[in-house]
Amino acid sequence: MNIYTRTGDEGLTALKGGRVAKDHIRVHTYGELDELNAFTAVAHAACDDDRLQGLREQLLQIQHELFDCGSDLAFADESQGKAVFKVTPDMVTNLEKWIDQHEADNAPLTRFILPGGHPAAAALHVCRTVCRRAERSIVTLSHQESIHQEVLKYVNRLSDYFFTAARRVNGLTAVEDVEYERSAHVFRSGVKKGQHE
User: Fold this and answer.
1) Is 66 exposed, middle or buried (0-12, 13-18, 19+ CB in 10 A)?
2) What pLDDT digit, counting tens, does each position of 172-194 carry?
3) Which of 50, 57, 69, 86 is nearest to 159 (CA)?
4) Could you give the CA distance from residue 13 to residue 127 in angstroms, rounded to a whole number?
5) % helix, strand, coil for the chain, step of 5
6) Distance between CA atoms of 175 and 134, rounded to whole angstroms?
7) Which stretches of the chain are assigned E, i.e. beta strand?
8) What pTM was computed for the model?
């Protein structure tokens, strides 16, 4: 199998059900998920401490599921009705389970925190921000063409996962979260809450 095919030399690429320009909104959107997958790999590699083995396993599963998300977005608009999608409601529910598990062990938040801490936590915060950008692209795509809505739900929940997982890394490695020094008390005392919807 050749890595290069020359079929995209004129700026077109294949979707499932058609060919489009490489800067088409659908291609741009699943490209954002590909970028997120690569950053997730960086976070996975940074979880090289035995205390983070459970997170490594979760992140590897997420990489497979991000491939599923990209695959589900790669159907041409007119092919949506015939598509067999890979992202399921159970995948969203599983993310929620992991978020709840991490939050149960994380210290309660009262202020905004800065991204950072352990290198794996910092990498997960990068994942969180790239995930939010990918989500914005999916929303833009959904305004123009049909999409599999479970992908949007999954990616929305995934950014919350990255936030809670970053805090869990710091907790497991005894690195304190750094509070934003000019933050008011934005969360009720004792409430465990993420930074995003």
Assistant:
1) buried
2) 999 999 888 887 787 665 444 44
3) 69
4) 27
5) 60, 5, 35
6) 29
7) 12-15, 18-21
8) 0.88
